[in-house]
Specification:
The chain has four helices and twelve strands. It is mostly beta strands. The longest helix has 8 residues.
């Protein structure tokens, strides 16, 4: 688990609201928590955004629907064809994390694994974000985590769907924010990850 000070140093960005920086052992995406991201609009600032992208066209009375819809993750290969995401392609972000969790199917059993980078340091998922203005004029940030075909390790672990989040290598973070072509991030074979079985906890961010 990373401290805010370490996070700011690693990502060369300052937390916008440090008093509301929350560190948690676990996050459940279906509760739509607010977690730290860095957007390409303000790459020197870490902000909290709600997990589950709400498209710009969602009206106030429809936003709760969008928060519960399948926008926690988005397939990087099909973003341009999905109405929920294609309008946010220029709104790139880094979703900050320390590890994530997936289940390996072994017969009828599912074994949960914690996955983290080889250096065991905080890292970033590639994400897209959107800004929504509510009826009171408040701007709310929401985001989605991009996924792609699993690399060798994740094919073994996430052996049902064989997908994985787009984990960025350190040298890719700035390039992702600057708009490098999506296709570059389809192949995650060079991302070095470690997986270990655990007894509890869903996807972990901070």
């Amino acid at each position: 688990m990373a401290s805010l000070k370490k996070l700011e140093k690693l990502f060369k960005a300052m937390m916008e609201d440090p008093e509301n920086f929350m560190i948690s052992e676990e996050y459940n995406g279906f509760t739509h928590p607010a977690t730290p991201i860095i957007s390409n609009k303000e790459s020197g600032i870490i902000v909290n955004a709600q997990w589950g992208l709400v498209p710009f066209f969602a009206k106030d009375n429809a936003k709760e629907f969008w928060k519960k819809s399948n926008t926690l993750n988005a397939k990087i290969e099909t973003l341009e064809t999905k109405n929920s995401f294609k309008h946010s392609l220029d709104n790139r972000c880094l979703v900050l994390a320390t590890s994530f969790f997936e289940w390996k199917h072994v017969g009828k059993e599912k074994i949960k694994h914690r996955i983290y980078t080889k250096d065991n340091e905080p890292f970033a998922f590639a994400g897209l974000f959107n800004e929504n203005t509510d009826s009171s004029g408040n701007i709310n940030l929401t985001y989605t985590i991009l996924t792609t075909d699993a690399n060798e390790l994740m094919t073994e672990i996430h052996n049902s769907k064989k997908r994985m989040p787009v984990v960025l290598r350190k040298q890719e973070e700035e390039l992702w924010l600057k708009g490098e072509p999506m296709e570059i991030y389809h192949n995650r074979s060079e991302v070095e990850l470690i997986a270990e079985p655990v007894d509890k906890m869903p996807l972990q961010l901070f």
